[in-house]
Write a structure and sequence with these properties.
single chain, 90 residues, alpha+beta, 2 domains, two-stranded antiparallel sheet, 36% helix, globular
Length: 90
């Protein structure tokens, strides 16, 4: 299942996507890691997130610089989807 990462290391350096995935597999059945670069379009991306929400929860990992924020990678939980407004609650 991989090596244990001390909390002090995570607090100082953060945690990478693969480490979050491996940790999740320990506690969440049928967890999946899907890379956005492998999803052909926005419609399919939204469909994957909505499907994930119907089975539990979704965590997105994105590059902060891509949305003009300070820092590097960031994890973002998606809590819900509203089809009327076509918006996700983060």
């Amino acid at each position: 299942m991989g090596k244990k990462i001390p909390p002090a290391i995570i607090n100082h350096h953060g945690i990478i996507l693969e480490e979050v995935y491996n940790l999740s597999k320990k506690y969440v059945p049928n967890v999946k890691m899907i890379f956005g670069s492998n999803i052909p379009n926005l419609k399919q991306f939204k469909r994957i997130i909505i499907d994930g929400l119907s089975h539990g929860f979704v965590i997105i990992n994105y590059g902060r610089k891509d949305v003009k924020q300070v820092g590097s990678g960031h994890f973002l939980p998606i809590a819900a989807y509203n089809p009327k407004s076509d918006r996700f609650l983060i």
